[in-house]
């Protein structure tokens, strides 16, 4: 079921609910794609369907991307989509997970850092977690500076506000996962270790696969991620 959380055509999410009596734990899914509008929320449809089959409601959200709008629009859309969970039917507001993949991992962590509220667990899957480092490395052909509107040296305050690595501690439970063949693996390792040092409760998960293994229901690393999510939300 599609539902709008704003007036723009890209401000919507797809809600899936499992059978049976609720309220159900709910996972907010934030897709990646280098913060570019050609990539859409359907990237996480299989992920959402698998979670729903396992008893989670899922809210797979779309948002305005900065290549057609601006960074502020993207950031505010993700925040609004998460806030909209309180309006969804038959979900347990005490068991909310925010899950982001790749660029969506950055957006998820930034949104939770801005407003931890009632979030029970924040999950980053192969996330771009240190925007300052990513900009210095020109990760993905400069997608970070293109999204934020400038290099770190030009707009350091925007980078510090937006970069999950610079926002620790988060103050919520964290699941950090990345596959061993992913170029972003060192970033996930560093983020998980830094979060733990800062006092956050962290499950760090690493396993075989590429950048998309962490959202592929057929992989072992995905099963490990779901196991950690189960423990955090369902005990």
From TrEMBL:
<comment type="similarity">
    <text>Belongs to the AB hydrolase superfamily.</text>
</comment>
<dbReference type="InterPro" id="IPR050261">
    <property type="entry name" value="FrsA_esterase"/>
</dbReference>
<protein>
    <recommendedName>
        <fullName>BD-FAE-like domain-containing protein</fullName>
    </recommendedName>
</protein>
<feature type="domain" description="BD-FAE-like">
    <location>
        <begin position="18"/>
        <end position="166"/>
    </location>
</feature>
<feature type="region of interest" description="Disordered">
    <location>
        <begin position="1"/>
        <end position="24"/>
    </location>
</feature>
<keyword id="KW-0378">Hydrolase</keyword>
<feature type="compositionally biased region" description="Basic and acidic residues">
    <location>
        <begin position="1"/>
        <end position="13"/>
    </location>
</feature>
<dbReference type="GO" id="GO:0052689">
    <property type="term" value="F:carboxylic ester hydrolase activity"/>
</dbReference>
<dbReference type="InterPro" id="IPR049492">
    <property type="entry name" value="BD-FAE-like_dom"/>
</dbReference>
<dbReference type="InterPro" id="IPR029058">
    <property type="entry name" value="AB_hydrolase_fold"/>
</dbReference>
<dbReference type="Pfam" id="PF20434">
    <property type="entry name" value="BD-FAE"/>
</dbReference>
């Amino acid at each position: 079921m599609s539902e709008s959380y704003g007036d723009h055509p890209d401000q919507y999410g797809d809600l899936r609910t499992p059978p049976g009596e609720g309220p159900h734990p709910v996972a907010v899914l934030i897709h990646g794609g280098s913060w570019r509008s050609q990539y859409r929320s359907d990237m996480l449809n299989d992920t959402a369907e698998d979670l729903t089959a396992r008893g989670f409601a899922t809210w797979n959200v779309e948002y305005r991307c900065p290549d057609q709008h601006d960074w502020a629009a993207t950031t505010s859309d993700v925040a609004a989509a998460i806030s909209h969970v309180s309006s969804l039917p038959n979900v347990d507001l005490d068991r909310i997970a925010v899950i982001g993949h790749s660029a969506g991992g950055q957006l998820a962590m930034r949104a939770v850092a801005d407003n931890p509220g009632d979030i029970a667990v924040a999950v980053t899957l192969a996330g771009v977690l240190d925007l300052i480092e990513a900009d210095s490395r020109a990760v993905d052909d400069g997608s970070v500076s293109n999204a934020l509107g400038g290099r770190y040296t030009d707009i350091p305050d925007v980078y510090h506000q937006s970069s999950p690595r610079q926002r620790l501690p988060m103050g919520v439970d964290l699941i950090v996962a990345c596959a061993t063949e992913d170029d972003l693996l060192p970033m996930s390792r560093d983020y998980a270790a830094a979060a733990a040092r800062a006092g956050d409760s962290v499950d760090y998960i690493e396993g075989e696969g590429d950048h998309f293994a962490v959202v592929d229901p057929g992989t072992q690393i995905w099963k490990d991620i779901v196991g950690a999510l189960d423990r955090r939300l369902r005990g």
